[in-house]
Structures are given as structure tokens and as C-alpha cells.
Amino acid sequence: MLGIGWALRRFVRSSEDFFLSGRSIPAWIAGLAFISANLGAQEVIGMGASGAKYGIMTSHFYWIGAMPAMVFVGLFMMPFYYGSRARSVPEYLKLRFDEKTRGLNAITFAIMTVFSSGISMYALAKLLELVLGWSFHASIILTGIIVLTYIFLGGLTSAIYNEVLQFFLIVLGFLPLVLLGLKDIGGWHGLTSKLAVVATNAGFEPGAWSHSWKYTGAPSQNPMGIEWFGLIMGLGFAMSFGYWCTDFLVVQRAMAAGSMTAARRTPLIAAIPKMMMPALVILPGMLAIGLHATRGGFLPIGADGQPNYNLAIPMMLAHYLPTGLLGLGLTALMASFMSGMAGNVTAFNTVWTYDIYQTFIRPGQSDSHYLRMGHAATVFGILASVVAAYAVTRFNNINDILQLVFSFVNGPLFATFLLGMFWKRTTGHAAFSGLLTGTLAAAVHYGLTLSHGSVPGIKGGFLGTVMHVYPSEMALNFWTAIVAWTSCFVTTLVISLFTKRTKTDDELRGLVYSLTPRQSDAAMPWYKRPVTLAVFILVASAILNVIFW
Amino acid sequence: MRLDLRLPIGLMFSLFGAILLVYGLVSDPTIYQRSLGINVNLWWGVVLLAFGLVMLWFSLRGGPGRTEM
After folding, report:
1. Cβ contact, residue pair B34, A183, below 8 Å
2. What's the pLDDT at A161?
3. By Cβ atoms counted within 10 A, which residue in A159, A350, A408, B46 is the most buried?
4. Residue A20 above 70 pLDDT?
């Protein structure tokens, strides 16, 4: 099975050339690539782990998180991105503000990519450990070698192409797992009764794992340990908007679309399958914890005495799928690990070589010099990912650490983008100090607080005094994002008022809302307009919120 | 000239489906204890094959998706 997947991928790669000729990808492909760029193994494993650890509240990552943010990207942000022709976030920041803002963002972005690939690396190594019975250290080394080979053989050239295939692989590889699991546990009704056991064992109301809003009145009532305000502002606003609006791994996919209208429609089209994802990635995690609590010992117990939630999905695969279908499931996982890691390491290489090294350290060198630097950066990126992968072993849910990284990087960045795009008065000095303050504020908040049951160190509280203990890692992440966003927003706003504008209106044309020609959709029939799609998506996600209240 | 992505998707899943289906027919039934006694290889093979063939059919016929949106 694995071999066939590999052979087909090779066949696919050779046809890449005509596929990416210019911006001419049909909207449905760009849309699927848009969510596949995010639907890596990190997402599958991480959301499954969160489903087990936090229950159905995890779907907020989709229904109040991704959906509104994707609508916002499609309606409001895409015109700037597509219009400015910037190829990366640092590049946009350079056009809108200045070199130093670009440099700062390049550095935080580079750190983020290292963590992202480290998380993938950890997850793949865990899977190898489970399936092949190797030691974790050997699995990490093997993973590093595979990724290095993959990148040097040019594995990422067909990114968008592979991503769409991967989307179908993941959906069709995981669906039988969900169906079998549901059948085994006795349908939705059987699942909620098992989850009631999970919830009462943990000291919550019986419905805490199967209601997404009902128990968000106070942090102590739900497993995520967050109340509605922190959930909406932290996850729904600062983190989700930050991620979907500023993560270029994702946004780039929409920019490959054929026209401005198609580019705007891409995130909106993507939002429709995205809405259904919880059934595929969160539900198996919920099934796993339900089985764990009622049939005993389904999940292995980690060093911290908690079940290792990261293994929810791999254990489900091994439990239900027989030889044959298991191969399909593993192929789906492996393929997404590989492209996830390779994508991040390549992004690291690009940002380091062009946005940091070429701009600040050694400008004006020959192309071959930068190419060698790029290769060195790739190797360094992988080594750094290995270190990150060991840091990840401290977390029983990779989604916790992934969102932590996002709260540091994307939280403040979103404030910078909002002000930069919608207020032409925002200055370069202000954007730079805002970003810096936002990231530092996140670090200070993280250093002064801790999540329940953690020891100070890598999981926070390293500044000596612990001022507040959050009930869960995720609650800590949400508040870190809120702190980061707010301090970046306020700093940028205040400093903008006290500094002189350095860019004229003319230089900002196409980069700021008030100086960009409006998109007129009047010529399109109403059902084709992005706004119509947007309304449909928002209504549908509202309905989902109510159904699983 | 643009390659239709439905062609490789169709080929890949038809092939996966056919292999699973055949494997489901010849495999030892005891391996299906873990999947609640259901021959999932056979049934999911049928699903994948159908999906692959529909994709292939669309791509050969040149239906929606080939035209630029």
C-alpha cells in the first residue's frame, strides 16, 4: 500500500509543470488546497487528541474559529494580498511598513516553522514507535533523514497538487474509522453515555464532553477550563483570525487562483468542507476517550499520569482497521506528515535565506552563495526541529503546543495587520514596536502563569513567581493570545499617533483599505457573489453551534 | 493547457479501491474480528473504486471544474 502511494506520487510529480503554469487553478482545487495546507497530520493527530482531552468543545476551533476567520479573509483581506502581489507575510510587511518590521516577523515566523515541523516530527516518530516498535530516539532520527531526503529530491515542488490528493486520502482513509467506531460504541447516543462517564470521572457535569457551549459559564465547569469570553476573544478572535489571516502557508493557496474573484472565493469554498471536519478529526478522539473510560486502558498512560491523548487517533487506527485498510490509513497519515514537515522546513529555509540572511546579514552575494545557504538552512531547520520535537514530548496533546506557538506569533501579528490594512496612519516604527511588545507580552504572560498540574519550565511559569494557574493548557494559550493581541494593538495605535508617517498615500495604494479600489460584485448574479457564500457559511456554522450546544 | 487533477485522483483511488476489494475477497475472515466482523476491505474497496471511477468519468467527460471559475 505504502509503495503504491509512493509510486503514484512520483507519477503525479512529473505532471506538475503544466499544473502551476501561472495563476490558473480552478477555484475548487485552490479551495481544497487551502484547507489541505492546514489539514496536516498535526491537525488530524492534534484535533483528535483535543477531542479526547477537551471533548466537543474542540469544535470551536472550527465553528467559532476557522469559519468566521475564513469568511473575513475572503471578503476583506484577500483584495490586499492578491492585489499587492506580495509572496509572503514578511514581504507584505516590508511594502506596508519597513525593513525592520519585516525582519522581526521573519524571525518569529522562522521559529514558528521550526516548532511546527518539530511537532509533526514528534507525531510521526510516535507513530513509527507504535507501528514498527522502534525506540523514540531511533524514530526521530529516521524521520529527520526521510524529510531531508524528501526535500533534497524536490518533494515540495508539487505542493498544491499533493495537497489536494492528500485531502482525499485523509478523508477517505479516516471515514471508515469514524463509522466503525461509532457503530461499535452504539451511535451518537452510545457515545454521549460513555462520555458522561468520562466527564463524571473528571469531576464535571455528565454533559461536559458532549456540549460545546452549555458549560462555558465558568472555567471550572468544562474540561477546557475556559469561560465564553476567553473562548470567543482568545480562540474565536485573536488566534483564529491571526492564523487564517496571516499564515502564508495557507493564504498562498488562494493566491494561486485565476482571478481576484476566484481568490476571494477560495477561502469561502474551503470553509464548506472545513465545517464538516470535526466529524472526521475530533469525533475519533471523543470515541477513543469514551472507549478508554469504559473499556479500560485504551490509551497508554504518559509520564504525567494522564493518558497520552496524542495516541488517540493512532490507537483507533490500530484497533479497528484490519490489514489492508490499515495501510490506507497509515499512507494518509504518512503523506500528510511528510508534506507538513517538508512545507515548514522549506518555509524556514526561504524566510531565513531571503528575508533574514540576504536582507540583513550578507546582502549582494551571488545566487549560488544563497543557494548553498539555503541548503545549510534546510539542514539546520531539521536539526532545530529535532530539538523542538523533544520539547513537544512534554505535552500530552500536540494541539496545546501548536496553539501556544500560534498565540505568540499570530496573535500580535493579527493586530499589526488589522491596523496596517485598515488605518493608513499606522507607521513603521509603531508596527515594529507593537509586534515586539506583543510577543514580549505573550512571553511575560506565559512566564508568569501556569496550567493546572504542570511544573514551571517549558510549560510556563519560568519567571519565578506564578501569578495565576489556568485549569488547562488551552485556556492558558487563549489568554496568552488575548494578552499578545491587546498589547500589540494598543502599542501600535499609541505609537502611530506620536510618530510621523513615512509612507505617502501613493506608496500605500493597494495595501490599505481606504486607498484600494473597492471590489464590485454587482456584475455577478447574486448566487455567485462572495457575500452570498459568506452568509451561507456563517448561518451554517451558527446552526452547528446550536445543534451541539 | 492544463492538467485535470481529477485524472490522477481517479486513477489513484480506482487502483486503491480495486486492490482493497480483491484483498477483501481473498483475505482470511478472522482478520475482520477487529472491525466488528465487517469485511471493511471489501466494502471500503467498493466505495473507493466508485469514487475513483466517478472522478475518472468526470475527467474524461470534461464536466464542471475544467472550465475556469
Report:
1. no
2. 66
3. A408
4. no
